[in-house]
Amino acid sequence: MIYNNPIIPGFYPDPSVCRVGEDYYLVNSTFEYFPGVPIWHSRDLIHWQQIGHVLTRHSQLELDGVKCSDGIYAPTIRFHEGVFYIITTWVSAGVYRNFYVTATNPAGPWSDPVWYDQNGIDPSLFFDEDGKVYFQSNRGTTFAMERAIYQSEIDIASGRRLTEPALIWRGSGGSYVEGPHVYKRDGWYYLLTAEGGTSYGHMVAISRSRSVWGPYESCPHNPILSNRHAYEEIHGTGHADLVEASNGSWWMVHLAFRKTVGDIHTLGRETCLAPVEWIEGWPMVNRTGTNSIVVDVSSLPIQPWSQTLELDDFDADTLGMQWIHLRNPELKNYSLSERKGFLRLRGSDKSLSDIASPTLVARRQQHFDFTATTSLEFDPLNPNEEAGMTLLMTNEHHYDFFVTSRKGQRVLVVKYSLELIHQTAAEIPLAPGAVQLRITGTKELYHFLFSQGDGNFCEVARVNTRYLGTEVTSGYNGVVIGLYSTGNEQQSISQADFDWFKYQPDSNI
Predict the structure, then answer these.
(1) What's CA 167's distance to the chain center, in Å?
(2) Which of 178, 315, 492, 509 is surrounded by the fewest CB atoms within 10 Å?
(3) What tens digit of pLDDT does each residue of 420-477 get?
(4) What is the pTM of this model?
(5) 400 labelled catalytic
(6) Of the listed 14, 32, 70, 195, which one is catalytic?
(7) 315 catalytic, yes or no?
């Protein structure tokens, strides 16, 4: 049996997984986006279907003023005695706070946060056989403490810390020791970590001890996963979680990224899967300690989900699970009911360049080659108003394709913002009526096209993909494709009506 990595393509980093019977559940980081933490369901670890988000209420997730790549870091999902637990870190302006939420149904609803008094990032929970529960993160009570793995005992019912955080492992020697997970197998406690920083030097290491408190001995063939020196198409392999399948086989989910152009990646860090074998008491990943785009295994029966249509006609009462907002949305600026079959957006005084919540719905770019098309009806009454599509990496790095007004004439504009550079790439007059906007992507270029009623699309401009790459913008995100409206420092009095949106992969990569 052959499967392809990534198993969940696009900006879905920091995977964590658990099994309940024959079912598997997986979660990812979401940083400044809302709702937070997508949750996925699978029957074979290869094919995943999103069943919801975990943090869907303002009471669970406050993102006001949270800058790009702050917000929600590295959730861990665990199941114990009929209850699902997801523990994660909320980050903003140098403040790091850990909390967990619970549910009996993984699709939700999830509880309000229970905050925990241990610092650091990438928290995890371990439920031991004697009923005790332990919390791990990469710091102790203050973020100024040594970057290593610390552990404390937690009263899981109340969130009260029962012991002082103790340093249990400094890692195998790599930098930025983080992403701890504890497992118990054959009388050994195994401590898995991520090291090396979440770029080309990323890797996974493991240690073990007869006591949950250590001392932990390092695996003799650490790192157990690293593509640093491998001739593979996926890079930055790290931040992993292990799971035992229902048939007794073992697997690892981890993040990685694929190069877009040169040494630059744009899609973000993606979720990948690798088979694991236990040899002389230590895990061997994919037999080589590396992972590949194409993996040949024979352990799991394939149970794919039916394919979902990538056309959203906005006929439903709520937005689909693929849609996300920048920070907590101002709901008054969004409507699926005012004009049935349309998504109506009202631009606020916030723009895509602000660290705020502009009127935006977005979905992740998941393929290098894709076509994204929407139909927009928008007649701006003021020259400050604009509405259209965006390719957004950060508030300082985005390409915008929008309708606005210039001296009373409705025009179509392609504009790119790269920190202090704000450049109009094209501007053309529009005839009255609806306009279809289309963005097509390749590894090298984004193409911006439009049509007005005749079905023929004309290219307006093209811009290089590389300037939205992580190595240019910094941060932890991937490119999202958005529908937006803004009044640019003023509340818009015009509404933008989007009739439908379609995302179509043009290849399987």
Answers:
(1) 29
(2) 315
(3) 999 999 999 999 999 999 999 999 999 999 999 888 999 999 999 999 999 999 999 9
(4) 0.97
(5) no
(6) 14
(7) no
